[in-house]
Design brief:
about 300 residues; Alpha-Beta Plaits; four-stranded antiparallel β-sheet; 10 helices
Length: about 300
């Protein structure tokens, strides 16, 4: 992919509120058609980052670009192809779902197409509730209406902050399938959620942050790498040796390291070299982990190691 495929780009972004640093030197990219899981605990700086992406607050330093356009320098231009659900969406409670969408189009000075509105509402499962007042909607229904609102102008990019809150399992499945279909159609999605099982089924890339800083990322090529867990009786010596061999590795638990290799044949060579170096290995096995494990691992390492 070339630079034209970079849809979202943050470069050394910092956001300070007085003496409090909410986001610190954060850099990452999201490419066309990716579903990027943007993950971290409460207070990690996720919502602040999303608000900066949408021009709702400005970074103290660093740059944010959407399809190459600087968000601070040209907010309307940067956001013209962006749809978003951020924090809890607010609607006119005494209007129906369909009337709420019509009102937004009026405020934006856009043409109102009744068929398109119905299609948006049908797509998020609100076709039968389109003419009910929003005051009678459940939280899950309001989340679906927010997605319909975000999709009104057929955006190239969706920025979603906890969009699955309040959805029951069936609605969550439908929502997930809708996002997958959008991604297949080329829509780029940045998704922040605490529901890791859902993010794991959706995302093609991951960005992990904590205390406002990047603590890890997983790209689309990560799953193609051979990942091996190595545990040594002397963890420090094993780590020093891996570094001397210029291996791509990181600590994952006490005395163990995850080593990323490009070819299956590299595993046997790695073991042979370690034995020849006199290392006392106590465990070597394929390394596989789910998103929850990766998440907890990243957060624990950010705190200085697993307890």
């Amino acid at each position: 992919m070339d630079n034209a495929d970079i849809m979202l780009e943050l470069n050394h972004v910092t956001k300070q509120y007085g003496r409090v640093t909410a986001v610190k030197d954060l850099s990452f990219q999201v490419r066309r058609g990716e579903i990027c899981g943007f993950l971290g605990p409460n207070g990690a700086g996720k919502t602040t980052t999303l608000r900066m992406l949408l021009g709702l607050t400005h970074p103290t330093s660093g740059t944010i670009k959407i399809q190459g356009t600087d968000v601070v320098g040209d907010t309307p231009g940067a956001l013209q192809s962006v749809g978003a659900i951020i924090e809890e969406s607010h609607f006119y409670r005494y209007l129906t779902g369909e009337q709420n969408l019509r009102q937004v189009l009026r405020l934006r000075g856009l043409e109102i197409n009744a068929q398109a509105l119905r299609e948006r509402l049908d797509a998020v499962g609100l076709g039968d509730a389109a003419r009910r007042r929003v005051k009678g909607y459940s939280l899950g229904m309001r989340q679906r209406l927010a997605l319909a609102l975000a999709m009104l102008q057929e955006p190239a990019i969706l920025i979603l902050d906890e969009p699955m809150n309040g959805l029951d399992p069936a609605a969550m499945r439908d929502f997930r399938l809708h996002l997958v279909n959008l991604s297949k159609a080329g829509v780029t999605i940045l998704l922040s959620s605490h529901i890791l099982t859902e993010v794991e089924q959706l995302a093609t890339t991951f960005v992990f942050i904590n205390h406002g800083q990047l603590v890890g990322s997983e790209g689309p090529d990560s799953s193609q790498q051979i990942q091996t867990l190595m545990r040594g009786r002397d963890a420090a010596r094993l780590g020093d040796w891996l570094a001397s061999q210029h291996q791509d590795f990181e600590p994952v638990e006490d005395g163990a390291y995850r080593v990323r290799l490009e070819d299956p044949d590299d595993v046997s060579e790695l073991i042979r070299d370690a034995v020849n170096a006199g290392l006392d290995l106590v465990e070597i096995r394929p390394y596989a982990t789910n998103l929850e494990h990766q998440y907890l691992e990243r957060m624990a390492l950010d705190q200085g190691g697993l307890s």
